[in-house]
Amino acid sequence: MMNIRLRTVIYLNKVDIENVPIYTCDACQRSEVLPSVKAELTGLIADLGNMPAKKKLSFDELSEIAYLMRKVSEKEHRTDSIERIVEERINELLDIMLIAQSLGDEIWMEEIRKRLAQITQHSLSA
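Structure (tokenized):
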């Protein structure tokens, strides 16, 4: 049986990528990245290149799935249902979309669309 945890992935001993959803088996110590975020993590690593500067990144700033998992695990949300947390995030993103739309910022709007799609795609596959 594997558990999901938010872990730090270290790339080339230089970049700490925090809050990556990882399946972990406590019995055999095997770990693997959650399939629904693997493409995002691979893309991030590709963007870093072969000689990145030393830094820390928070994967939950890129991945809505990681963001929601972090949010669900916070102490102040332990009594909230997962559905409520997801609904609040979707509403927050829709509010941000309205702001981006009122400013005519197409790039920002596309970023919000991608974030909403991440939630939708994961919800449909779950």
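The two ends are 17 Å apart (CA to CA). Strands lie at 3-11, 15-24, 31-33, 55-58.
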